[in-house]
Amino acid sequence: MRITTGKVRDGAIDLEGEVLPEGSIVTVIARDDEEEFELELNEEADLIAAIEEADRDQTVDSSVIGELLRRR
Predict the structure, then answer these.
(1) What's the whole-model pTM score?
(2) SS3 call for 46
(3) 66: three-class secondary structure by DSSP
(4) Does residue 1 belong to any structural domain of this protein?
(5) How many domains does the chain have?
(6) Inter-CA distances, 47 with 14, 19, 31, Å
(7) Domain residue limits at 16
């Protein structure tokens, strides 16, 4: 699994610096500028910490997560 960003141009999603194989299945979550949500202080701190980890490429491969879930 990969996470990347892009923009819609001429009705298609233009991924920034990412090339996916033809036929790849993708999930798109579009930001809504008018949509708001609130977090508790501890949730906000967890979110900020997770974003900082991702920015430092401190992520876990999806195969590792899948294996952990199968063990439960």
Answers:
(1) 0.41
(2) helix
(3) helix
(4) no
(5) 1
(6) 27, 28, 17
(7) 6-71
